[in-house]
Amino acid sequence: MKFEESKVLQHLPKQFFASLVAKVNAKAASGADVINLGQGNPDQPTPDFIVKAMQQATADPTDHKYSQFRGMPRLKQAAADFYKREYGVTLDPEKEVAILGGSKIGLVELPFALLNPGDTMLLPDPGYPDYLSGVALAQVKLELMSLSSANQYLPDYQQLDPKVVERAKLMYLNYPHNPTGAVATPKFYEETVQFAKEHHIGVVQDFAYGAIGFNGKRPVSFMQTPGAKDVGIETYTLSKSYNMAGWRIGFAVGNADMIEAINLIQDHLFVSVFPAIQDAAVAALNSDQSSVKSLVALYQKRRDDFYAAARKIGWEPYPSGGAFYAWMPVPKGYTSEQFADVLLDKAAVAVAPGNGFGKSGEGYVRVGLLIDEPRFTEACERIGKLGLF
């Protein structure tokens, strides 16, 4: 017997990162010494105190049972305490915090939870490709907000089509921004709250890289903006802040109605997250954050080292303010994908083509700051020998 995938699955977007990994693996399999700058997977180990908290929790028989459907109260309290301590934001842990098995789950399931088939949502372009998965699965309509360096990769709400704005019911933001490393300002978030209230649009701010800011400037939380909880939520993941990408744990905070919608859909999809992982997350959030500060310092050094090596070959970066990426222009005569293919084929250097993040990403490639300085220098030396700059 042969079974066909549903029409919904047949209309899912191509998984960009899976395709990228396949290309890199094929080059490495040929025997090439590939310097992989295309990944977004943290390369440092999870801090030891978090690992030990997990080890202790796994030995506790009470953690072997089903988790509470909507997450353990102590993790929701830890998330609320974290936002109060780090951002000065007061949250009700029961009504304004939802536990997620990684923030990607929340970002993909939210269109199901808040929209009906045929409704319209706004997404940033360029942006995280997996946002598109939620669009396809929920069978909603998509309108893109084109971002450019001229406006620091922030949406210009005045330039959006009024007819599109009138139809829109949900909007995603992501700062610090993947793939560009752009950061939002308090003024922009104030404009966002005003725009959302005026047009009755729910806001979802993806704060995956919230801990990672450069030159002593800490990224701003959307929740710090007056009125933010009236219009939206913010999703936070422990993947980047604590090198816990494989652990799959995060949370959403903010508007109580949106949080309830997340909890309701997750009541039907999951039985929350393995309790021991939640205990480890509590240890991370309640810590003194010294491990995070050390990690940010490492990414700052890597960014500066890569920028210096790139500039030596005439390759000038877009100035990143956060996240762990460098957003690099493509030389004249190449598309993003062509340039990425040339680097992989001729220099055995892997980068992520900008057009994989949306039409407005064309003309750039994304470099992950997830290797140490000697390999950055070697990568730029290999690229320099191609004579493209």
UniProtKB/TrEMBL annotation:
Keywords: Aminotransferase, Transferase. Pfam families: Aminotran_1_2. Coiled coil: none annotated. GO terms for molecular function: pyridoxal phosphate binding; transaminase activity. It comes from the Bacteria. Signal peptide: none annotated. NCBIfam families: PRK08068.1 (NF005977). This is Aspartate aminotransferase. It comes from Secundilactobacillus pentosiphilus.
